[in-house]
Design a protein that fits this description.
By secondary structure, the chain is mainly α. It is built from ten helices and two strands, in the order αβαβαααααααα. A two-stranded antiparallel sheet has the order 1-2. It is elongated and about 75 Å long.
């Protein structure tokens, strides 16, 4: 299995290649423009038009690329005010080629940071790799028809992430008797501290309840599709927090 840095490099290389491909696949068309010089001289109501060669880009692909880059950058830099996230709000202010070149420049810079290990701390990388391995194992169990074992593993992985998230934000992970806080208690503490919002709290509560049902043999309280949704929800939650 690739390391987390390896996965990030694979993703950033894919985005760079897509941006470059959009640039290279632009077509040249004749575009009609107003003859402003004639308009000012004659003051005609209807000014004659002239044509000029202009590069035309596939805006559907640009918008799709923009969405992918935003998701990728927010995963690395959750703060929307981070400079690398801010560049993506300037599309309407620049020409398509300049915008695409800006995206490539940001991605290349991010790639360099990933290669040098500057994107995330060592402990975060280790945790991320552990969680990635566990979720891959859970997905394999789920695909093989073992929904109950998968639910337990996904829930345990989620609780481990909540514990790491609490530590990163200076939140206690044990009670007064030095016993580990439950996933539910961590979820509430993280929400109270505004690490994430109430909608994420609600989703985490649902996932933890499913894990508890699986762990206590209440297998009729959830279905395989429920666990499938739980898997994708936990993957998204971990990537966003």
């Amino acid at each position: 299995m690739k390391s987390v840095n390896g996965q990030l490099l694979e993703q950033v290389n894919h985005l760079i290649a897509e941006a470059q491909n959009i640039i290279d696949s632009a077509i040249t068309e004749d575009v009609e423009v107003l003859n402003l010089a004639h308009s000012f001289q004659r003051r005609d109501r209807y000014s004659p038009k002239e044509t000029k060669k202009e590069k035309v880009y596939d805006w559907a692909r640009i918008i799709a690329l923009e969405a992918s880059v935003k998701t990728f950058m927010l995963r690395l830099h959750p703060d929307p005010e981070h400079p690398r996230n801010q560049i993506l709000v300037t599309r309407s202010k620049v020409k398509p080629l300049s915008y695409l070149r800006n995206i490539v420049a940001i991605l290349e810079s991010t790639k360099t940071d990933i290669e040098k290990g500057w994107v995330v701390s060592f402990s975060e990388l280790v945790s991320a790799e552990i969680f990635s391995d566990s979720l891959d194992a859970a997905k394999h169990l789920l695909d093989s028809g073992y929904k109950d074992a998968a639910a337990v593993l996904i829930g345990s992985t989620l609780e481990g992430h909540l514990r790491e998230l609490a530590k990163r934000n200076g939140i206690e992970t044990v009670n007064d008797k030095e016993k580990l806080l439950s996933g539910g208690a961590l979820n509430q503490a993280l929400t109270t501290s505004k690490v994430y919002d109430a909608s994420k709290n609600k989703a985490v509560t649902l996932y933890l309840d499913t894990r508890n049902d699986a762990a206590h043999g209440h297998y009729n309280k959830y279905t395989a599709p429920d666990v499938q949704q739980m898997y994708f929800g936990v993957v998204l939650f971990i990537s966003q927090t």
